[in-house]
Design goal:
about 20% helix; mainly alpha; single chain; about 60 residues; 2 helices; ABC transporter arginine-binding protein
């Protein structure tokens, strides 16, 4: 579970012990400027991350 400000209000987190990361996978020759749709799991920190940056692609 990723630590976010809203979650801090409901959960008492311990000190983080493992950094998480994300990756976007696409064909080698993909022009990301032309990408129209990105799939992401609902309710994840990655959904919120992308929603702030690429609203029109979700």
């Amino acid at each position: 579970m990723g630590i976010t400000e809203p979650r801090k209000k409901q959960v008492l987190f311990s000190e983080p012990y493992f950094p998480s990361s994300a990756a976007f996978i696409a064909k080698k020759d993909t022009d990301f400027a032309k990408v129209k749709t990105i799939g992401v799991q609902n309710g994840t920190t990655y959904q919120h991350y992308l929603a702030k940056r690429k609203k029109s692609t979700m």
